[in-house]
UniProtKB/TrEMBL annotation, chain A:
It comes from Actinoplanes couchii. This is Oxidoreductase. Residues 1-100 form the FAD-binding FR-type domain. The keyword Iron-sulfur applies. The keyword Iron-sulfur applies. Its cofactor is FAD. InterPro entries: Cbr1-like_FAD-bd_dom, FAD-bd_FR_type, FNR_nucleotide-bd, MRET, OxRdtase_FAD/NAD-bd, Riboflavin_synthase-like_b-brl.
UniProtKB/TrEMBL annotation, chain B:
InterPro entries: OxRdtase_Mopterin-bd_dom (IPR000572), OxRdtase_Mopterin-bd_sf (IPR036374). This is Molybdopterin-binding protein. Transmembrane segments: none annotated. Residues 35-179 form the Oxidoreductase molybdopterin-binding domain.
Amino acid sequence: MATVRETREETGTARTLVLDIPEWAGHLPGQHIDIRLTAEDGYQAQRSYSIASAWSADSKTVEISVQRLEDGEVSPYLTEVVEPGDQIEVRGPIGGWFVWRAESTAPVTLIAGGSGIVPLMAMVRARGRQLFRLIYAVRTPADVLYADELRRRAREDFGLDVHFVYSREVPAGWPVPPQRIDIAVVNTHGWPPDFAPDCFVCGPNTFVEVVADMLVALGHDPAKVRTERFGGA
Amino acid sequence: MSIISRGFGGRRRDPSPDLPPGQYQAHDFPVLSAGPTPRIPLDRWQFSILTETGEEHTWDWKQFTALPAEDVTVDIHCVTKWSKFGTGWKGVSLDTLFEDVETAGDYVMAHSVGGYTTNVPFEDLLDGKAWIAYEYDGEPLHPEHGGPARLLIPHLYFWKSAKWVDRLRMMHEDEPGFWENAGYHMYGDPWQEQRYHGD
């Protein structure tokens, strides 16, 4: 059982929930939790949400970031109704493949599409001295989750590069017009295959499909490209 | 014991009796894959059954698609909680493929191009319960959805229906496959909600 400690608006349509889970024994970045909601008449709905936070034994909190889907059943509740103090039934952590392990020393390429940033943010937050490159594709600057933190980390965290790709609208003074992610971006802003990086790609299915194909075409070992997808084909 | 979620109404009343616990109905066809989608040319495609004695039965694409095929319409249930009703497939029944295979194995490890594996009790593959499917909705099965051919075991969670399957290996003992090693259930019955270890 989790208690909502705090909520933070990340964008106009995405919200972070900070959950207190007293019995939480820790998680790996990339894992998710299942949330179960129960209506008064007993009707239940379950969904999975990626964990956004790195585990810290001191805090016992878990953060998830929820993107509101207009036709959704659970995400409007989590982004609009839930308040601090509310209790939520959670289960987890779940998932043992799309995870980054802090004992790994290999360089890491992270590629996010939209709210696919969430599990990758947990990796960025858990990073030690390993070399990370993050490519984060969004429609507009207003769609960037964790915008301030990412800008700060890109400036201050040694060994972390962050590159944004805007497909519809770019910030003022941005050097290139809106563009979709392409193989040149992946090649320039990800680690080259010679470095044998671990690659994590998360986002809507079509995005992940295209980006994973690019990584393979660039010569990355398919076994080192881990994907997590949401939405239909 | 569940607590009431303050202010949660939910939208989908009277869920279909065909919907297993904890699932919701999807109308698109979500994709769940652990890595990039392999593209397998048909002239290099091969499927085999390897028995516990080392005997191997192999089919190439031409031999495989010449086998008697069945059209099946089934509901599918993904562990990520979507279910899709009335999906239409064409494929070869595992009963047909095992017709000439001598085996005393009780378990099967399905292997896929790219290294994915999943374990299934042998009896869950027989008696009209499983197919190697190569058409979806009247079209050749798209690579994203496991084409050229995938396992189809609709009575278990859909991760058991291995995409890009290229080998079934008979085993005496049950062993965990890819997702099973990553914390998912060894059997995966959606009606028992066997999602994760311990369910």
